């Protein structure tokens, strides 16, 4: 995949919200908030380009959490008032969703005007939303039906994003890696095989314009041990171009996730831990990448932090300065691996 280098230095999309934006949201003035969001996104673009990132996002600044691209833009969902241990507000589906217009395509077009490179857009995966919002008896017959309806919306959005110049799109499903364990975790309301079918619907494109990558981030951490057959089933059933995998702990399971990946798929290795301030030892990181290179062509690879820095706006994992140091380290690692091809 000769154009993988275009996206060598990656990140998941969400960034720590600046203090000015947090204050504007707390003030409750919609116009002031919108203005603060615009300024914050403009500054985030400059920040990412100075770091020589090969992707640019809006930091998820206009959204409450990583699901907002869908939940804020479709009908059929209701907030429950509950908050999970992960800080995510509870939502349930009361009817099949319908989109009221583009989800992120308009925002991506504005982002494109701020940068010389095509922006990256992140979306929650339809299988994840179905697994976490379906409740029996609330107007939707099954989690599979809900997932398929969401997949149609997200697939249409992907086509629109590509038509408007977006070349890297990432879907996020934090539940899937738990399903690859030798003792699989609770899949939520959507069983593993149904989840694969739903994700496959979302990422299908009849044609892939040159340079387009549709990626899937299947979880935040590798399981203790990987069921190889289930991993191969995941990669084989979902035709994502790029798999964004955690690779920051140095475990055998992390290597197994890469080892099971088909040769024709890109991999983005999450080589620095986005949850702790301490910086990784670069020799340790390079040794892990070398180990992956024993069975994966690193020309089809990229590097990133292990996850988003603020997938929930109100719960940043690091400070702004700590985040910057982590992103600088990712760039440094990329240059150690691939030289100055950027």
What fraction of the residues are assigned to beta strands by DSSP? 15-25%
Q: What is the CA-atom radius of gyration, in angstroms?
A: 19 Å
Overall morphology = globular
Mean pLDDT: 93
Describe this structure in words.
By secondary structure, the chain is of the alpha/beta class. Helices cover 39% and strands 15% of the residues. The chain contains 11 helices and 8 strands. The chain has helices spanning 19-27, 30-50, 68-71, 105-112, 126-133, 143-163, 192-203, 228-237, 252-259, 282-293, 320-338, and strands at residues 74-83, 89-99, 120-124, 168-172, 213-217, 242-246, 266-272, 301-305. Strands 3-4-5-6-7-8 form a 6-stranded parallel sheet. A two-stranded antiparallel sheet has the order 1-2. Helix 5 crosses helix 7, helix 6 runs parallel beside helix 7 and helix 10 crosses helix 11 (320-338).
Quick summary of this structure?
The protein has about 350 residues and is an alpha/beta fold. The chain has 11 helices and 8 strands. The strands form 2 sheets. A 6-stranded parallel β-sheet has the order 3-4-5-6-7-8. Strands 1-2 form a two-stranded antiparallel ribbon.
